Amino acid sequence: MIDRRAPSDKVLSRDAATIEQLAGGTIDVAIVLGTGLSTALHQHWSFTALPYDRLLGIPVAPLLGHAGEVMVGVWRGKRVAAFAGRVHLYQGFSAQQVTATVRLAAEAGAGTILLTNAAGAINESYAAGDLMLVSDQINMTGHNPLVALPQQNLFLDCSELYSERLRAHVRAAAGSQRLHEGVYAGLLGPTYETPAEARWLRTIGADAVGMSTVLEAIVAKYRGLNTLGISVITNHAGAPATEHDAVNAAAVKAGDRLAELIDAFLMHV
């Protein structure tokens, strides 16, 4: 029986073969779409959608804003696998499970990955609907996906988790569009930040905050993938009456702008 709680490389290799068959070859680029961001692919309905429950190593857990499928197709001449939705530590999943999509992307041949998320603004100059290139991260989840792996390359150099080269290309392509660049703080969740926590995060250098991405970026680095991170700002962290429905709606609204950045990103991979 396949154990989705601890997906092995062998199981993920079988899933990779399924994705490669749909793509017509190994994947060039993988994309992980966060809360409400599946709409960024609405112009690419020619992609083939494969539900996560058809894959053996990807955890499945329904959550608003996460379609729970991998969309496979060609975009800008690149074979792309877009994971529409992710699972989170706060849902009771392990660090190995929440990073299974990244491991699968690497198994399918991807050399580059785009990690997206919906995030709360810590930087007071940010507004809902803004986009932020992630330049660095602060992992405050209390977890690390490399714990208990075989003793090889565990002491990972994390000085550049997010590719400066890819960020430079996207900045140039964005032109005069409003595009920030900053530090993303990843928290365990599921509660949103208190006002005091938001002030503290600002003090330690965070510009945006969410409940995902940071573990995925570590695994991407470990597996040798070039990584770009984009946060869609959906709310102000620590503000009153923050609700998941509203965060999801704000992310959906920003889908077209995110799609433009993804298009620019794929031109330079």
From TrEMBL:
It is an enzyme of class 2 (transferase). CDD domains: PNP-EcPNPII_like (cd09009). Residues 29-266 form the Nucleoside phosphorylase domain. One of its GO terms (molecular function) is purine-nucleoside phosphorylase activity. Its EC number is 2.4.2.1. Coiled coil: none annotated. Keywords: Glycosyltransferase, Transferase. One of its GO terms (biological process) is nucleoside metabolic process. GO terms for cellular component: cytoplasm. The keyword Membrane does not apply. Pathway: Purine metabolism; purine nucleoside salvage. Belongs to the PNP/MTAP phosphorylase family. NCBIfam families: PNPH-PUNA-XAPA (TIGR01697), PRK08202.1 (NF006054). This is purine-nucleoside phosphorylase. The gene is punA.
